[in-house]
Specification:
The chain is mainly α. It is built from 99 helices and no strands.
């Protein structure tokens, strides 16, 4: 009964255990039960193998009852499996055997039937019976077929180990000279191999010895004997012999030249037995090679072998790709002169016809005449297949008919019989690749090398069953045929001398063709008419165009043959380069390609194009071909022929031809993949880089679906459809097109012995030679002689370097051999897997890469077949296990099916699950779901039967878990997709090199998304959608329950629970890890207030359900606030349990929920109870030490939010407790959190007292972990900033070392303590808004925007501590700024008291407005500027993360065009911060061992990315000043030369980006500034002794680039400044000194620069020496004069000089109109926002040059304000130019600032001196007032009219200093000032009026010294 309810296995297991019982009665009962069960249920349900194993033991029992029962059960078993039972019972007592034989004879011969059925089978059975009663016994036969092959005798046998039993001297004897000795050796082997099942082992040497005898031995008896031995081996080893098959098959086939029947028979048996151990695919190459042998017997026997092999195939294991080359060879044989060869070929073709059906074979039999075709069909009817074929062939006919000339020995036949069981296996497997039709749909491949000659035709046949063949007709016949279909006039006018008549004739011709019917159209005759004189020499282009168009029409509409094509192609190629007729010629060619197939047409066209000289024709032909390939697809094209033509084209002198060739290569690359490049590696580097660039463009693209040539004739349509079904039909055949070299002759015995030499150096030489051979050959044929065995030996070489070299060679081999490497998987691939167990990491990595390279070529099937893989897993090597399991976990999910042998790995997988090594266990768990995906849960669970009970439970639990995570198998892509999809899938995923064949299978299933993650080896925990389904039984019930609230509000429930806990009625929630009783208690408490279904999810054993529960809780959070608050204590407790889960996804989800939860609680103004806090916070704090950044961030964010619902002072002790953890990350994070609490809430949070708390924190300054030390220091510094020196008292005594660290840190962060701790952040925005709403005309947008920006700046990504990283000098008082917009307006109206209107009547004070500016004028507002200042200051931070965050923010601004303007005015400051950071990286970070180099690379890429964005915006790039550019270029060039970066894996990329950036800087910066900067930099680098010559060289390269740009930029350059720089340079480096330099580059660079300037400017250049003090002494002037003179002499012609002079004269007397235009242009610039500075500079230059020029008229009609602005601007420029850098720029700036900021102390206007001491008119005050008003947000005039003063204020005057340190001074003072103005702006502006104090200016000047000191300090601390 138990068996009936599907529990048969368990029952049988238990009964078999019962057989070991000591009590014979129990044994008898067990046997009896088994026997009855077997007779009732049959051998399908009761497995016979385990019973047969114990039978011999039962027959030996002392108890007669047991023996009798054993006899009965033996008879019962015999009834089911007949003679299969004989071998296992061979060794029992002869009397018993005799009795059994007698019993067996009595048994009825009919097949037995089960009489009882399993429940699941009972319904089927009922139906069966009805059918049987209807259809008599026909069913019985079929059923029998099912039943008999159930058990395979082979399976029941014990394997015998024979290698050790070989005679010791076997290998010597087998080589002996006497044949008798050889015979003895062979006989010894023959005896051993008679064992029907052999133990797996390394039989390579034995097989090699036997192969040698078969191939070389002269004694035919020995040949036969050796063949028998091979047969025995193949039969005994079965699949395990497969790896040797490839070596032996060619030898045996060639030996068929022997005529002796017994030798032939032995060889036949051997090859048949060997065939069963491998697949036809694997040996096809060898067989095809032998088919071309001259010896007729070899041909005959090969054909017969093929016929016998075909019988074992099915339609799926004999795909078209295999059938095609075989048919090609056999078709040659049926025309052979020897009748026996013909007969054998007929038989083979007949068999093929029978196996795969006519539809598949007919395309290959097109040329066969009727007689032969009938003969093939006749043979086909006689054939009987091994696998019963359809119902027509009843399965009982198992024995196949022996072939004539072969008497099947019973051994072999018996083996065939048993083998049949496992042969069908490949059926479904082969299906896997069936859908891998990657690449464009192939239309049949050109035949394999065997039939290479006819490749063109062959591929043709695959596609079109009827190729149109017609003989060549004579011109007379053609004329006759043409006249029948064309009008008479047409033919007469063809060669008329008048072009109009010819054109008319063509028009008629065209009409006639359009109306003709396909069948009637004489194509050849028509095209001959067209080719008739003048033919293609036609001179009139209109006639020619028509002619070409007609050719296209004929090709499209008629049955166009290759003969016709030959007539016209030459003419078409001749016209393809013609400007007017080219397109028509291309159309005609495309039409012909469609009619005659692209491969043939392309080959003709290419050879014609390259046999003529016209480059235009060549390039256009290549272009046509590129297009045609895209339209027709790539199938059948002869790559070899193209490659030679393309190489010719690449060598062409004409650039157009080269370009076209490269484009064609790009298109070919789409189809062929990276292997294409190998053919061009010897091209010139320049060409190669162009080719690479083209390939780069194509990468990631998929070949387009062919649009033409797909189905021209109906037949080909069906054929194409089939073809989609072919295995290996994908990219593989493209690879097959590549010419492969035979290298077996190079693998000499000397080379092999070298590789195996005792001396490692010689071994290495051997390996180097092999690598050389493979490299040279590029693509090789699969026959590589003895190489595999030699390389295999090297894989376990004691010298690891050689092992790695061997692995590299094997990778090359895989690429070179392509998919054919399949046949070496067993003998070479599996040993690579063994190397995965190596103890060295790099060797393992190399092995893994090699295995992957192989698997890419072979697919996975070969690896998983047989026991080899499971044998590897069996080895107890942890490295091997983890690597191999990891590899399987990556590959299995991509397969659609796997060989059944995969189950052999499962027991070892289970032992890995319990391995001592944690990594092995983890990898095994990761791989588990994928094994299950292919094998199914049942099989996996069944396999646990052999485990120990404890292990079994554990494994079953894991299986349950894996079952939930089990991904779905990759869906087979629908056929429709599989074609056009082409190679697109692989392109996305793999480096496109993976042959499409395997990769498509892994990627076409783009459906279950998480699977992708797995395919790429990502965490195996990512679940596919199917994994999440709850078992379907419960799903119905669930849907009903899920409505309604999830949390039920229980009045006073929470209070009651708190009471219970206080009264110790329940356990207090306090544990290190949650024990079961806690979980149970929580479950009970929840049952009253949580929906049942949710509770089930929450306490499910599988984390998937926890995720689901959390998702539901998030959904219900808003809608069930009361419920959530009512159950809050329980929810928090449940979440603490989740913190102990190992699954990251649950943890992330839980933290996400907590963030939302605490936000909700703070909105509801809820306060956590003590109970809730104490049972939750300690567990949350544990998670702050998680290794994952994301989690730590989340936890910190939650802690921040908790402060809103739970007092910070109470949080403090919990976090303090966290600092005592053993986890250093947790300690560090807790300390930082404490610092944030103190910073936000002041010292009062420190519990129990500040003193105690700080003492505890200070202990951590001595921690052994660097981050903890830093965190402790930062926290104390924070306290110091709040509390001042009192800190030292509170800390108590510290060790000297700790104290010095602390003092150093405090000094570094020096800033005067702020008066009070910043209050809660959250209050502020509300306050600001309340004020804002009162302000009558306030536009709310920007204000809110600002406060949010500030908040963002303050808590950068929830890291309050990030702000601490900023040096205090750079920190801004954000709160002051933030309140700024509010406070200012309160007191502002007082300005009106001052009666400034006396001065200038019309000014009206408008309503106060705060920032009533147009939105794009954002940069005028101090708030934005200060935010930018703040962020820029963070760029130079010593903390990498802070810097990266700041850079990302800036990058966002720069990338948005509308916002990028905000950076205007901050460019220098930003660049300074950037190169300070570059220096910091160079000097500090790169040297820091502890820092992850990835971090540095990340920072570099941020910096470079930012700069590139910046230097793409020309207006901003131009703001960079000389000094800053100089330092920037210095930083970038240093970075390019930093050898440490080159060593990093991403380093090259960084250096490439820097290169790009430097080019951008050179092109986009202000050309004067950058040229000047480079000159100064060159001067410095030549002066500095430490500087490397490389550095100067790069600077010079930059200068050369600038020189190249000069012709375009000369007009925008301030030549005076550049010449001044050159002058200074020549002063420092006079010519003599320059000549002493090691390299002559500097002097050449200088000369080139000057020469170019002279060339561009002519004599006028001498006018630009204005800035040089004493020109006469300047070497520069002399040099320029010399140059000018020289150039004058050069350009001897007088007229030149005349024009020169004339030009200068005109220049002097430049007409007034021109002057006016010029000035108007300048003033336009001054008035525009962007070019103000440039305009002023030009105006200054102009005034200087023409001092008498009158600019008054232009100023007159502008406003007073504008006039004073211009005057002031000119004065500033004058100061700068005259000052020539003597005034440090900082004072320059502050003087401007003072002038503009200090209002007059009294209301009467006293004559305050301006900087130059002139008296100041009212306009200046007005201007100042405007600045003040605008700073305070009061409106002045319309925004548009006003020139942007602020830009004047915020931009520093162009400094003439060469270094940026002075710049830094000025920046610092500005920053400082801006801060103080924010603090005092409201006060100052009033006080200064009333009391006459000059706060602002005095403070700014007073601070300069202070700042200088600080700067020095910064410098020293950096050093």
């Amino acid at each position: 009964m138990y068996i009936e309810i599907e529990k048969g296995e368990t029952v049988q297991e238990e009964l078999l255990k019962g057989l070991d019982n000591k009590n014979p009665k129990i044994i008898v009962a067990c046997i009896e039960t088994l026997r009855k069960a077997l007779s009732e249920f049959g051998s399908k349900i009761i497995l016979l193998k385990p019973i047969i194993k114990v039978l011999p033991k039962l027959f030996e029992s002392r108890d007669k009852g047991v023996r009798d029962e054993a006899k009965l059960i033996a008879v019962e078993i015999y009834r089911w499996i007949r003679d299969v039972l004989r071998p296992p019972l061979q060794n029992i007592n002869s009397v018993q055997l005799k009795e059994l034989e007698e019993e067996w004879v009595k048994l009825p011969t009919g097949a037995p039937k089960p009489t009882r059925f399993l429940r699941s089978q009972q319904e089927l059975q009922a139906k069966l019976e009805q059918q049987q009663s209807a259809g008599g016994d026909a069913e019985g036969g079929g059923d029998d077929g099912d039943e008999v092959p159930q058990i395979d005798a082979y399976e029941l046998l014990e394997a015998v180990e024979i290698l050790s039993k070989l005679p010791k001297d076997f290998y010597d004897k087998i080589e002996a000279k006497k044949w008798q000795e050889r015979k003895e050796a062979l006989e010894a082997v023959e005896v051993l191999v008679k064992n029907p099942k052999l133990e797996a082992g390394d039989y390579a040497d034995l097989v090699k010895a036997l192969k040698k005898v078969v191939g070389k031995d002269t004694n035919v008896m020995l040949v036969a004997l050796a063949a028998k031995c091979l047969t025995g081996l193949a039969v005994g080893l079965r699949k395990k012999f497969g790896q040797y098959a490839g070596h032996v098959v060619p030898t045996i086939l060639e030996k068929f030249k022997e005529k002796k029947p017994q030798v032939v028979q032995a060889l036949q048996e051997a090859i048949d037995a060997i065939f069963l151990t491998t697949t036809l695919q694997n040996i096809s190459e060898d067989v095809l090679a032998v088919m071309d042998n001259k010896n007729p017997t070899i041909k005959q026997q090969t054909s017969l072998f093929i016929a016998r092999s075909f019988r074992h195939c099915t339609a799926s294991t004999l795909p078209k790709s295999l059938l095609k080359p075989f048919c090609a060879g056999l078709l040659k044989h049926i025309n052979d002169s020897a009748p026996e060869v013909r007969d054998a070929a007929f038989e083979a073709l007949g068999t093929a016809l029978k196996v795969v059906g006519e539809k598949a074979v007919n395309p290959f039999l097109v040329d066969v005449d009727k007689l032969k075709l009938d003969r093939i069909k006749e043979c086909s009817e006689k054939v009987e297949l091994v696998h019963g074929k359809k119902a027509g062939l009843a399965a009982e006919k198992k024995e196949f008919k022996p072939v004539p000339g072969r008497t099947a020995s019973s051994g072999a036949a018996g083996d065939k019989d048993t083998k049949d069981i496992s042969v069908p296996k490949p059926g479904p497997l082969k299906k896997a690749p069936a859908t891998k039709a990657g690449g464009p749909p192939k239309k049949g491949k050109p035949s394999a090398p065997g039939g290479a000659g006819s490749a063109g035709n062959k591929s043709k046949k695959g596609l079109e069953t009827k190729e149109i063949v017609e003989p060549e007709l004579s011109i007379e016949v053609c004329e006759e045929k043409a006249s029948a279909v064309l009008p008479a006039t047409c033919i007469q006018l063809l060669d008329s001398s008048n072009w109009k008549e010819r054109l008319a004739c063509m028009e008629e011709f065209q009409k006639a063709v359009e109306l003709m019917d396909r069948t009637e159209m004489p194509c050849q005759a028509l095209v001959r008419m067209l080719a008739k004189k003048p033919g293609w020499k036609e001179t009139n282009f209109q006639v020619m165009q028509m002619k070409l168009h007609i050719v296209a029409l004929i090709a499209q509409k008629g049955n166009f043959s290759k003969t016709s094509a030959q007539i016209v192609l030459d003419g078409l190629v001749d016209k393809i380069g013609d400007v007017k007729c080219g397109n028509n010629a291309k159309e005609a060619m495309t039409a012909i390609a469609e009619a005659c197939m692209l491969p043939w047409t392309a080959e003709q066209v290419m050879s014609m194009a390259f046999s003529q000289k016209n480059p235009k024709n060549q390039s256009e032909t290549l272009n046509w071909l590129s297009n045609a390939i895209k339209e027709f697809g790539f199938s059948g094209l002869n790559v070899k022929a193209f490659i030679s033509n393309v190489k010719t084209a690449l060598a062409a002198t004409n650039p157009a031809v080269r370009t076209s060739a490269i484009t064609l290569l790009g298109v070919m690359y789409l189809y062929v993949g990276p292997s294409l490049r190998m053919f061009f590696e010897d091209e010139k580097p320049a060409l190669l880089s162009q080719i690479d660039a083209e390939f780069e463009k194509m990468q990631g693209q998929s070949p387009p679906a062919p649009t033409r040539g797909i189905s021209k004739h109906s037949t080909s349509g069906t054929d194409e459809g089939e073809d989609g079904d072919e295995p290996d039909d994908g990219g593989n055949d493209v690879v097959d097109l590549l010419p492969r070299t035979e290298i077996s002759d190079k693998i000499t015995s000397e080379l092999v012995s070298k590789i195996g030499d005792k001396n490692w150096k010689i071994r290495k030489e051997g390996l180097d030679e092999v690598a050389g051979i493979i490299n040279e050959a590029k693509f090789i044929q699969p026959n590589i002689g003895e190489l595999p065995t030699a390389l295999k030996g090297r894989l376990n070489d004691s010298n690891k370097i050689l092992v790695q070299q061997t692995l590299t060679i094997l990778q090359q081999l895989a690429v070179a051999m392509g998919p054919n490497i399949k046949q070496h998987v067993k003998n070479l691939g599996i040993p690579i897997i063994t190397v995965l167990g190596d103890s060295k990491n790099n060797v393992r990595a190399a092995a893994l890469a090699t295995v992957n390279a192989w698997a890419e070529q072979t697919g996975m099937k070969e690896w998983l077949e047989g026991e080899d893989l499971s044998e590897e897993l069996k080895r107890e090597n942890p490295f091997l296990r983890q690597e191999l399991l990891g590899w399987l976990a990556e590959k299995l999910p991509t397969l659609r099916s796997t060989p059944t042998d995969l189950i052999l790995c499962v027991p070892h997988l289970y032992s890995c699950l319990e391995d001592r090594n944690g990594d092995v266990r983890k990898k095994a768990q990761d791989a588990l779901p994928f094994f299950m995906m292919h094998l199914g849960y049942e099989k996996m669970a069944k396999a646990t039967g052999k485990l120990k009970p404890t292990s079994k439970d554990q494994v079953l639990a894991m299986l349950e878990k894996a079952k939930a995570n089990m991904p779905a198998k990759p869906a087979a892509p629908a056929k429709a997709i599989s074609k056009p999809m082409g190679g697109s899938a692989p392109a996305k995923f793999q480096p496109a090199s993976g042959p499409v064949e395997d990769s498509v299978s892994s990627t076409v299933e783009l459906k279950p998304d998480p699977k992708k993650a797995k395919a790429l080896g990502v965490s195996s925990k990512a679940k596919s959608a199917q994994g999440k389904k709850v078992p379907s039984k419960t799903s119905l019930k669930e849907d009903e329950d899920k409505s309604g609230p999830i949390f039920i509000v229980v009045p006073n429930g929470k209070e009651q629970r708190i009471k219970d806990e206080k009264g110790l009625k329940v356990l207090k929630w306090n544990f290190t890890t949650p024990r079961d009783e806690y979980i149970e208690q929580l479950k009970t408490q929840m049952s009253s207030c949580v929906a049942k279904w949710l509770q089930d999810e929450m306490f499910h054993s599988d984390f998937q359900h926890h995720n689901k529960a959390l998702a539901v809780m998030v959904d219900h959070l808003e809608s069930e606030k009361e419920g959530v608050i009512g159950c809050l204590d329980l929810i928090l407790k449940w979440l603490t349990l989740r913190f102990f889960d190992t699954n990251t996804s649950v943890l992330m989800k839980a933290l996400e929920y907590l963030k939302l939860l605490f936000t909700l609680l703070s909105e509801e103004e809820y306060h956590l109870t003590e109970n809730e806090a104490s049972s939750f916070i300690p567990y949350l704090i544990l998670k702050v030490g998680e290794p994952k950044d994301v989690i730590r961030k989340d936890v910190r964010a939650i802690l921040n939010r908790m402060c809103l619902v739970y007092p910070a002072s109470k949080m403090f002790p919990f976090i303090m407790e966290g600092t005592k953890s053993k986890n250093s990350k947790q300690r560090a994070e807790c300390l930082e959190e404490l610092g944030c609490l103190v910073e936000s809430y002041g010292m009062n949070v420190c519990q129990p007292t500040p003193g105690k708390a700080l003492k505890e924190i200070a202990i951590h300054i001595g921690d052994r972990d660097n981050t903890v030390r830093n965190a402790a220091l930062n926290t104390i510094v924070t306290v110091y900033n709040v509390h001042g020196d009192q800190v030292f008292k509170l800390i108590g005594t510290l060790s000297e070392k700790d104290m010095s660290m602390l003092e150093e840190r405090i000094k570094r962060s020096a800033k005067r303590p702020s008066a009070a701790p910043i209050k809660q952040i959250e209050e502020k925005p509300q306050r600001t808004q309340s004020i804002s709403s009162n302000a009558n005309m306030l536009r709310k947008g920007p204000a809110e925007d600002m406060s949010s920006k500030l908040n963002q700046a303050r808590s950068m990504s929830g890291h309050p501590e990030a702000a601490q990283m900023v040096r205090r000098e750079f920190q801004l008082d954000l709160d002051e700024i933030e309140n700024d917009n509010g406070t200012v307006q309160c007191e502002m109206p007082e300005l009106v008291q001052h009666k400034l209107d006396d001065i200038f009547e019309p000014v009206l004070i408008p309503e106060p407005k705060i920032r009533a500016v147009s939105p794009h004028f954002d940069d005028m507002h101090s708030n934005t500027a200060s935010t930018i200042n703040f962020i820029i200051s963070q760029v130079a931070s010593g903390d990498i993360n802070t810097s990266i965050q700041a850079l990302t923010q800036i990058d966002e601004v720069l990338r948005q065009e509308d916002k990028a303007e905000a950076m205007s005015g901050h460019i220098d400051q930003f660049l300074i911060a950037t190169f300070m950071q570059l220096r910091l990286i160079y000097n500090t970070h790169m040297a820091d061992e502890k820092l992850e180099k990835d971090e540095i690379i990340k920072l570099y890429s941020c910096i470079i990315g930012n700069m590139i964005s910046l230097f793409q915006i020309e207006s901003l790039a131009r703001e960079a000043s000389t000094g800053v550019l100089k330092d920037l270029m210095h930083g970038l060039i240093t970075l390019m030369l930093d050898s440490r970066i080159e060593d990093l894996e991403e380093g090259q990329q960084v250096i490439r980006s820097v290169n790009l950036l430097v080019v951008k800087v050179l092109e986009k910066s202000d050309q004067t500034n950058i040229l000047s900067a480079l000159l100064v930099l060159l001067q410095d680098s030549l002066l500095a002794t430490a500087s490397s010559p490389k550095f100067s060289e790069l600077v010079m390269k930059c200068l050369w680039r600038m020189v190249r740009l000069l012709p375009d930029t000369i007009n925008s350059i301030n030549l005076d400044r550049i010449l001044l720089d050159i002058h200074i340079f020549m002063k420092v480096f006079p010519k003599e000194k320059l000549k002493q330099c090691k390299s002559e580059f500097p002097i050449r660079t200088l000369k080139t620069l000057l020469h170019t300037l002279c060339k561009l400017k002519g004599p006028k250049i001498l006018d630009h020496l204005t800035m040089i003090d004493n020109k006469n002494e300047s070497e520069l002037e002399a040099h320029l004069c010399r140059m000018m003179k020289h150039s004058m002499d050069q350009s001897g012609s007088k007229s030149d000089k005349e024009t020169e002079k004339g030009a200068s004269r005109i220049d002097e007397k430049s007409s007034k109109a021109k002057v006016n235009d010029f000035l108007a242009e300048i003033f336009k610039k001054i008035g525009s926002k962007e070019n103000t500075k440039e305009g002023l500079a030009e105006l200054y230059e102009y005034k200087k040059k023409y001092s008498d020029a009158d600019i008054e008229p232009f100023l007159k009609n502008s406003s007073q304000f504008f006039q004073s602005y211009v005057e002031r601007g000119l004065r500033v420029i004058e100061m700068e130019r005259e000052g020539k850098g003597r005034i440090p720029s900082s004072t320059g700036i502050s003087s401007q600032v003072e002038v503009t900021c200090v209002p007059a102390p009294t209301s009467t206007v006293s004559s305050i001196g301006n900087t130059n001491g002139e008296e100041v008119g009212p306009s200046v005050y007005l201007e100042r007032l405007k600045i003040l008003r605008q700073r305070c947000g009061l409106d002045n005039t319309k925004q548009e009219d006003r020139p942007p003063l602020t830009s004047l204020l915020s931009k520093p005057a162009v400094p003439t200093v060469a270094s940026s340190t002075d710049m830094l001074h000025s920046k610092l003072s500005q920053l400082r000032e801006s801060r103080e103005q924010h603090q005092h702006s409201d006060l100052d502006s009033n006080q200064s009026h009333s009391s006459g104090t000059m706060t602002t200016s005095s403070s700014s000047t007073a601070n300069i010294d202070d700042l200088k000191k600080r700067l020095e300090r910064i410098k020293s601390s950096r050093k």
